[in-house]
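Q: Given only this backbone (243 positions), what sequence would you predict?
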């Protein structure tokens, strides 16, 4: 079956069913209230947000970081998609349904013994179709996991490769304060001010020499783009943590 015809992923294609959309909207406004009164959020650089779809990339120190990026962009959770392991989140109807009431998860396969069951081309198709509806966007954390505050882990190439395959700019951001508001291991948030710095977009075409790049050229471009992204986020993060 063609992946775009699979009813399992229908919520990613076009207008979402009401029961998916309403909870994302309510959670967005709940988050905005939290970021106004409890952990006040200040956003710098909103002028850098593209009018088209983009891939939002930031450092990652807290479970609240997705909500912070959504609030920083002033776009609800309906607007953003995130990659999620297909074998964990999509093979259970309960997990798939519950989590997608507040997030738009897009399946990506984790290789087992070097073999992928869900082709990356299908993930790209779902991303393209998801983003084509009302200029929706993706969120990536290039470190791949929550890092240690004040230390940026080496970036993985996934975000850059998706940007190249999708022809979509990366929008770098730095989150400062979420590590204090909701640190790893804590059950409850603390009333702490948070700042999000939105940096200038990184455009994939500036890393390509022609319109029909080979696989080697795409691989080389993704390395260079990842380096540029890591340098931009690390530079700003270190300025904030060293102040």
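A: Predicted residues:
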């Amino acid at each position: 079956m063609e992946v775009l015809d699979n009813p399992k992923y229908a919520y990613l294609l076009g207008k979402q069913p009401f029961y998916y959309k309403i909870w994302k909207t309510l959670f967005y406004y709940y988050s905005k209230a939290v970021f106004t009164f409890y952990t006040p959020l200040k956003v710098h650089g909103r002028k850098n947000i593209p009018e088209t779809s983009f891939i939002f990339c930031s450092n990652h120190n807290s479970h609240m970081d997705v909500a912070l990026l959504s609030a920083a962009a002033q776009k609800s959770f309906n607007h953003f998609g995130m990659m999620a392991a297909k074998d964990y989140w999509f093979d259970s109807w309960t997990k798939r349904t519950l989590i997608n009431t507040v997030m738009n998860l897009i399946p990506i396969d984790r290789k087992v013994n070097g073999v992928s069951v869900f082709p990356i081309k299908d993930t790209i198709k779902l991303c393209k179709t998801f983003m084509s509806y009302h200029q929706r966007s993706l969120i990536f954390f290039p470190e791949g996991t929550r890092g240690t505050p004040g230390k940026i882990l080496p970036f993985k190439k996934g975000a850059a490769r998706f940007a190249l395959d999708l022809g979509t700019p990366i929008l770098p951001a730095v989150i400062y304060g979420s590590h204090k508001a909701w640190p790893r291991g804590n059950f409850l948030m603390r009333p702490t001010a948070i700042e999000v710095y939105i940096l200038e977009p990184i455009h994939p075409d500036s890393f390509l020499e022609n319109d029909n790049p080979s696989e080697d050229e795409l691989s080389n471009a993704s390395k260079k783009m990842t380096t540029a992204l890591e340098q931009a986020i690390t530079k700003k993060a270190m300025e904030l943590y060293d102040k």
